[in-house]
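Lab manual, section 2.4: Encoding a predicted structure.

Procedure: take the sequence of the chain (204 residues), apply the prediction step described in section 2.3, and record the output as structure tokens. A sample record is shown.
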Amino acid sequence: QTQVSLDQADKSKVEPVPTERKIIRNADLQLEANAPDDAQQKISAIAETKGGFVVETTKNSNASSVTPRDSVTMTVRVPAAKFNESLDEIRKVASRVIVETVKGQDVTEEFVDIEARLKTKKALEAQFLEIMKQGKTVADALQVQRELANVRGEIEQIEGRKRFLENQSSLSTIKIRLQTPNASSPTSSGFFYQLGNAISSGFD
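Recorded output:
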């Protein structure tokens, strides 16, 4: 009787209903700013204004060089519909964009497949519940309970993946690294530039 119900559930798959496209958009930005702390506060305000939030912020300071170099690493999440305009505003906070990477992943097919699998598993769960009501022996009841527990475990996994895809596609992730201009650049007044001037003056 249990096997018959399994076969019936497999045949009772419902055609997936067309859904809006699910696209996961992420960006990585490496920006140059004279005052990373100030830029970080402005970016936090941008995220909140768009209906997003700051996930985490890490600050680093290097005072060992002649020209101190500070950096701030942060991760923000913004609604997918505000992704492009958020990027535009974040870029304007910096004095220069060093590296920018934007990625988009279309997960619509996976999402539709997950919904179809979820319907099938829930139909199977309902059939097992009906079988339990009709159980005539303890052995049958125990077997159905085991099958029901397995199905419910699969349902939880599928629902977990569905929630993940919904979360990632509805909120875009932007990772940002803010740093002061490179102190070791040959054209700057950093350590190597000053060392070169000192050697030149010595020869003179």
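Check your result against the sample. The mean pLDDT is 81.
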